[in-house]
C-alpha cells in the first residue's frame, strides 16, 4: 500500500485554494476543541465576502471563532452543539444557534443526516508508512464527520500527535494543506481552596483500581491532586488533560485493573499543553476512539468501578442537575455528562459524581437551590443523579426519597443559604428540618 506516496503530493494546495472549494449554504464541520485547524478557519473567514450563509458546526470552540463576530453574520452562521467562551455571545445575541445532543450520539447524527454536513475541515498528523494520518487529539465526532462529508479538507501538521485507535488514509482526503503551527493549548486551571476541598471529598470516593472519567476544569484537576497515594487507577474518559500525565508518570494511573481496554488510557479528545500532546504521541498505551465508543453508556457500563466526575451550574432540592444554562441562556451543553451518568449507573460499583462549589458570583448565588432557575434545562434528571459534592461534603442521593434528598443537599449547601433552604424544606415537606 505504498502507492499513497504518489497520490499524496497531488493533493497539496494552499489554505486559500482549499477553502475556495467551499460554497455558500454549505454545512461545514470543524475539528473539535484544541484540534481545530486554525489555518483553515482563518482562510475561510478571509473569504467571507464571497460566501453567504455557510453553517459552521462544532462542539467547544477553543480558538477565537472569528466567524462569530457580528460583521460575519451574513456570511457564517455557527451551530454549536456545546457553547464555549468564544461563541457564547453570538448564541446569546441570536447570531448563532445551539443544538442539544448527547455527545455520544453526535457521530450518528452526521451519518444519518439528522445534522446534515457537506464539508469537514480537519487537522491531522503526518501520515505513517501506510499513508494513514491520525486524528491525534480530536477523534470524538471528527472521524465520523470526515467519513460523512462530501468534501474533506485537511491541514497536515507535524505538531499534531499520532495517536492510536483512529486514522484516515491520505487517499480519502480531497485537499491537503501542509502547515506546521502550534496546536491550541489549554493551560492548567488555578486550583483554589474551594476546589481543593471538593477534590478531597471526591477523592474519598475513589479506591485503588478504579477507572475515572473526568470533565474539564479546576475540580477534576483538584481531584487528581489528591490521588497521589492510590494504586492502579485507570482512565476511560471523553477527555483528559495535563493532570493525568503527572499521575501516569508517578505510576498511579496504570490502567491494569480495567476490564475492557486493559492497560490503555481511553479518550476521544484531549485539551492541555504540549506536555500532554507529547505524552500521547506514538504512545501505545493511549487509545483515542470516537465518542460513540468512549461515551456509549453501554460501553461505560462494562467498566467495573468507573467513577465519573462532572460539574454543574445548579442542583435543585430534588437532585435535578442543570449543567448548561443560566436561566434561559445557554451557557455550555450536556457534553458527555449524561452518557457517563447513565453508564456509571449500570457499571458494577460505578459512581457518578457532580462536583461543584456551593456558591457562585462571589458567594451571592447558591448553586444548591429550591428550584432551578426559570428557563433552565434539566441536564441530569433526578432519576439518574447519584452523588453531589460541594466543599461542605457529599450528598449520596440514589435511593433517597425527595425529603431525604433535600435534607442531604441542604447539609452540603453554603451556610449562608441553609436557613432559606430549610424554610423551603419545611414548607415542602410539612415537617421540621432535622440535622
Ligand atoms: N447561577 C448563575 N450563574 C452561574 C451559576 C448559577 N447557578 N453557576 C455558574 N454560574 C456562572 C458563574 O458565575 C460563571 O460566570 P463568569 O464566567 O461570569 O464568572 C460561569 O457561570 C461559569 O461558572 P463556573 O462555575 O466557573 O463553571 P465551570 O467552568 O466550572 O463549568 C459547567 C461548569 C457546568 C458550565 C461545565 O462543567 C459544563 O459546561 N458542563 C457541561 C456538562 C458536563 O459536565 N459535561 C461533561 C464534560 S464536557
Summary of the model, kept short:
With 435 residues, the chain is an alpha/beta fold. The chain is built from 15 helices and 26 strands.
What's the overall geometry? globular
Distance between the termini: 70 Å
Query: CATH superfamily name of the largest domain?
Result: Acetyl-CoA hydrolase/transferase C-terminal domain
Oligomer: single chain
**Ligands bound to this protein structure:** coenzyme A
Q: Helicity range of the residues?
A: 25-40%
Q: Biggest sheet, open or closed, and with what strands and sense?
A: 7 strands, parallel
Number of domains: 2
In DSSP terms (H or I, runs of 4 or more residues), the helix count works out at 15
The CATH architecture assignment of the largest domain turns out to be: 3-Layer(aba) Sandwich
CATH class of the largest domain: Alpha Beta
Structural class: alpha/beta
Share of residues in strands:
15-25%
Amino acid at each position: 500500500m505504498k502507492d499513497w506516496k504518489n497520490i499524496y503530493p497531488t493533493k497539496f494546495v494552499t489554505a486559500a485554494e482549499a477553502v475556495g472549494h467551499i460554497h455558500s449554504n454549505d454545512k461545514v464541520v470543524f475539528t473539535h476543541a484544541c484540534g481545530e485547524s486554525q489555518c483553515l478557519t482563518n482562510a475561510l473567514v478571509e473569504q467571507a465576502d464571497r460566501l453567504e450563509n455557510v453553517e459552521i458546526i462544532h462542539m467547544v470552540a477553543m480558538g477565537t471563532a472569528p466567524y462569530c463576530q457580528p460583521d460575519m453574520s451574513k456570511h457564517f452562521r455557527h451551530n454549536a452543539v456545546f457553547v464555549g467562551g468564544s461563541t457564547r455571545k453570538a448564541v446569546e445575541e441570536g447570531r448563532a444557534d445551539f443544538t442539544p445532543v448527547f455527545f455520544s450520539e453526535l457521530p450518528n447524527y452526521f451519518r444519518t443526516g439528522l445534522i446534515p454536513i457537506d464539508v469537514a475541515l480537519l487537522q491531522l498528523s503526518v501520515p505513517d508508512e501506510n499513508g494513514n494520518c491520525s486524528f491525534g487529539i480530536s477523534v470524538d465526532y471528527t472521524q465520523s464527520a470526515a467519513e460523512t462529508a462530501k468534501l474533506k479538507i485537511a491541514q497536515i501538521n507535524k505538531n499534531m500527535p499520532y495517536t492510536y485507535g483512529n486514522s484516515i488514509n491520505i487517499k480519502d482526503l480531497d485537499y491537503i494543506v501542509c502547515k506546521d503551527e502550534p496546536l491550541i493549548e489549554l493551560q492548567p486551571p488555578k486550583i483554589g481552596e474551594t476546589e481543593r476541598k471538593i477534590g478531597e471529598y471526591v477523592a474519598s470516593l475513589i479506591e485503588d483500581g478504579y477507572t475515572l472519567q473526568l470533565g474539564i476544569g479546576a475540580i477534576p484537576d483538584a481531584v487528581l491532586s489528591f490521588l497521589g497515594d492510590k494504586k492502579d487507577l485507570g482512565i476511560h474518559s471523553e477527555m483528559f488533560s495535563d493532570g493525568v500525565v503527572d499521575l501516569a508518570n508517578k505510576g498511579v494511573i496504570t490502567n491494569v485493573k480495567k476490564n475492557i481496554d486493559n492497560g490503555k488510557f481511553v479518550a476521544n479528545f484531549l485539551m492541555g499543553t504540549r506536555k500532554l500532546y507529547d505524552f500521547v504521541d506514538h504512545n501505545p498505551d493511549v487509545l483515542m476512539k470516537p465518542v460513540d465508543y468512549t461515551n456509549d453508556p453501554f460501553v461505560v457500563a462494562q467498566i467495573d468501578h468507573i467513577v465519573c466526575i462532572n460539574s454543574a451550574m445548579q442542583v435543585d432540592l430534588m437532585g435535578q442537575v442543570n449543567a448548561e444554562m443560566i436561566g434561559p441562556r445557554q451557557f455550555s451543553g450536556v457534553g458527555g455528562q449524561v452518557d457517563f451518568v447513565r453508564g456509571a449507573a449500570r457499571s458494577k460499583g460505578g459512581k457518578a459524581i457532580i462536583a461543584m462549589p456551593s456558591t457562585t458570583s462571589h458567594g451571592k448565588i447558591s448553586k444548591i437551590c429550591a428550584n432551578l432557575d426559570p428557563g433552565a434545562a434539566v441536564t441530569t434528571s433526578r432519576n439518574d443523579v447519584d452523588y453531589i459534592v460541594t466543599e461542605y461534603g457529599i450528598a449520596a442521593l440514589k435511593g433517597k426519597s425527595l425529603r431525604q434528598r433535600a435534607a442531604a443537599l441542604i447539609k452540603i449547601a453554603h451556610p449562608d443559604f441553609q436557613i432559606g433552604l430549610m424554610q423551603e424544606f419545611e414548607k415542602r415537606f410539612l415537617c421540621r428540618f432535622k440535622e
